[in-house]
Recover the amino acids of this structure.
């Protein structure tokens, strides 16, 4: 059976004669121009995105063009194009849903890290105000758990110098943090 479709505006449909009988056949170009807008409009209503709907309709018509020799003999070739376009739209929704679920699972696995406490922010701010040598000595001793001799070896100075830096650093930190300097132990 041959498909008869409306031609483009102001153009007669292509008519072929075969064996003495008239059979109306449609060129793909005419088929495309006659039905693209309606398929795209239906997909737009389904997806809510005109640009994406037009892309889906275009893909469906490209697939129809590849099979046009068989498709033109269908009773309703536009139904085939519409079905392909809807299947493409559903496939997109499935891919998006799978990606979203994957992202949600990834977020659940990640452990939430608490932000810095006000005390930590105050200590960090106070450390930035110390001279570089005092700051390094305090950080290496209290955060890296290095002994005075290890710090002296690393910095290339005498142990007495490191003790002096630690004492001055602790005193300055206590003053910056508004704490009592009486309870600050010496090393």
């Amino acid at each position: 059976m041959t498909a008869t479709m409306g031609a483009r505006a102001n153009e007669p449909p292509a008519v072929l004669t075969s064996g003495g009988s008239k059979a109306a056949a449609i060129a793909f170009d005419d088929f495309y121009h006659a039905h693209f807008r309606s398929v795209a409009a239906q997909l737009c209503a389904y997806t809510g995105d005109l640009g994406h709907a037009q892309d889906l309709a275009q893909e469906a018509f490209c697939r129809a063009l590849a099979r046009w020799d068989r498709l033109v003999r269908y009773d309703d070739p536009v139904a085939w194009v519409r079905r392909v376009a809807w299947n493409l739209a559903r496939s997109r929704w499935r891919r998006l849903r799978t990606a979203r679920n994957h992202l949600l699972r990834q977020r659940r696995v990640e452990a939430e890290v608490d932000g810095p406490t006000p005390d930590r922010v105050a200590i960090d701010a106070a450390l930035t105000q110390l001279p570089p040598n005092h700051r390094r000595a305090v950080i290496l001793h209290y955060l890296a758990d290095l002994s005075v001799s290890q710090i002296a070896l690393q910095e290339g100075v005498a142990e007495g110098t490191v003790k002096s830096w630690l004492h001055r650093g602790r005193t300055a930190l206590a003053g910056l943090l508004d704490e009592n300097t009486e309870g600050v132990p010496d090393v």
